[in-house]
Design goal:
By secondary structure, the protein is an alpha+beta fold. The protein has a 5-stranded antiparallel sheet with strand order 1-2-3-5-4, with helices on both faces. The longest helix is centred in the C-terminal third of the chain and has 14 residues.
């Protein structure tokens, strides 16, 4: 006996994963945190702009969209420190140009002075407020890009 799956059901099964993600899925779990790093309460962003955006996200809702939920993870090591800011919007994030200006100013890209990076995919936005060579930032970026691909 041959079992067949309708194409529409197969499509639903494959796309449900993307649409059913939560911020908890994106966050680093304790076993994923590289050795030498400790979790920290609050925010320890490299520059104030990223953490101000996190704290005051409702202020920017007409520009970036309505926030559904947000979360933060902060980490320290002997040579590194920073925060990962997670946002889920009601609809697709629409504030790319605004966020670039807020984080990096007229340069429009990360600099030594403003090293934050971000990924916006659908309803999710993640901002990494770390120096470019951060091990934990790389670990988080790899995980999130795999989940939100």
């Amino acid at each position: 006996m041959k079992i067949t799956i309708p194409l529409s059901l197969l499509f639903l099964l494959l796309t449900t994963n993307i649409f059913s993600q939560t911020l908890a899925d994106l966050k680093l779990k304790p076993k994923e945190i590289p050795k030498g790093y400790t979790s920290n309460d609050g925010n320890i962003c490299v520059t104030p702009a990223a953490c101000n955006f996190y704290t005051d996200i409702e202020t920017y809702s007409t520009i970036v969209g309505t926030i559904k939920s947000k979360a933060i993870q902060s980490f320290k090591s002997k040579t590194d420190r920073g925060s990962i800011l997670y946002f889920e919007f009601e609809h697709t994030f629409k504030g790319d140009r605004f966020l670039q200006g807020l984080l990096w100013g007229k340069n429009g890209q990360p600099t030594d002075e403003h090293p934050e990076e971000y990924l916006a995919k659908g309803k999710f936005l993640v901002i990494w407020s770390f120096r470019p060579d951060s091990v934990i930032k790389e670990k988080s970026e790899t995980k999130i890009e795999a989940i939100l691909q």
